[in-house]
Write a structure and sequence with these properties.
8 strands, 41% helix, globular, 14% strand, eight-stranded parallel sheet, TIM Barrel, single chain, alpha/beta, 274 residues
């Protein structure tokens, strides 16, 4: 039976969660009980939980993510979201330091916040992440809202940060969609850069099947370019993408079974210390 680690999950218990529209589209109740049941049915042994966006643009408070993880009885681990103000940075670091054993990473919502990856406001976060060996996840690529900042969310905007902080582990979420080739170059060039494949099969409209085939070809080509799948991490972006669609994407990759295994769980286990 194939092991799976989902490195990109969202959940809240608030009606103001903007991802509820994706949950309805995928026929989900979008509850903790349902998520844990879905993980069990799909043989997902562990997941990383990230704050979803609320109406108005703010993320779910990190304290609520910690509570959901505690209630999951060890099935979920928290990722601390960091917003670009001195106050929010200090609050995020406080949460991380007080929950050292539980917190597995930080998340910065590039494209949704008024800051770039190399903005000085994040320096304390990067210092802490380096000291504690915690990866930092970055939203990259297409934004869910039409007023998102694609310049700041472009994966190449992280090249300078990766150059300047070689001890900082970066994870580019959503594989920079649609800039797959740029992410391929970044994970090839930088030992400290990785990428997840979450939330990639939600588009396409009436060409949904062809779109998924196109995405699979792009991810496969990136693996060829990088010389292996050691930098590629499985994630669903639940509830944005269903487990059936996300797993079908991995199964359709034109790579060997050992690399699919790396994508599905081995890479995440090593990277996040699970």
């Amino acid at each position: 039976m194939q092991r799976i680690i989902d490195a990109h999950i969202h959940l809240s218990e608030r009606p103001s969660d903007t991802l509820t529209r994706y949950a309805k589209k995928n026929g989900l109740k979008y509850t903790l009980e349902e998520l844990l049941g879905t993980m069990q049915r799909n043989h997902v042994e562990h997941g990383l939980l990230l704050s979803p966006p609320m109406k108005g643009g703010a993320p779910l408070p990190n304290e609520e993510i910690l509570n959901l993880c505690w209630r999951s009885r060890g099935r979920l681990s928290p990722v601390v979201t960091v917003e670009p103000t001195k106050r929010e940075v200090a609050a995020a670091l406080k949460v991380a330091s007080e929950n050292r054993k539980e917190v597995k990473a930080f998340k910065i919502r590039l494209g949704y916040v008024d800051a770039s990856a190399d903005s000085p406001v994040f320096n304390d976060v990067y210092d802490y992440a380096e000291a504690e060996d915690l990866p930092v996840l970055f939203h990259t690529g297409d934004t869910a809202s039409s007023n998102g900042d694609l310049i700041r969310a472009h994966p190449l905007s992280l090249d300078r940060l990766a150059n300047e902080r070689e001890e900082l582990t970066l994870v580019l979420c959503h594989f920079g969609n649609p800039w797959f080739e740029d992410v391929a170059e970044l994970i090839y060039k930088h030992p400290n850069v990785h990428a997840d494949i979450s939330g990639l099969t939600t588009g396409g409209g009436r060409y949904a099947r062809k779109f998924t085939e196109w995405v699979a070809s792009k991810i496969s080509a990136a693996i060829y370019f990088a010389g292996g799948a050691e930098k590629v991490i499985f994630g669903t972006d639940y509830p944005v993408t269903s487990y059936s669609d996300a797993l079908a994407l991995v199964n359709s990759l034109d790579v060997d079974e050992a690399d699919k295994e790396r994508v599905l769980w081995r890479n995440a286990k090593e990277l996040f210390g699970l």
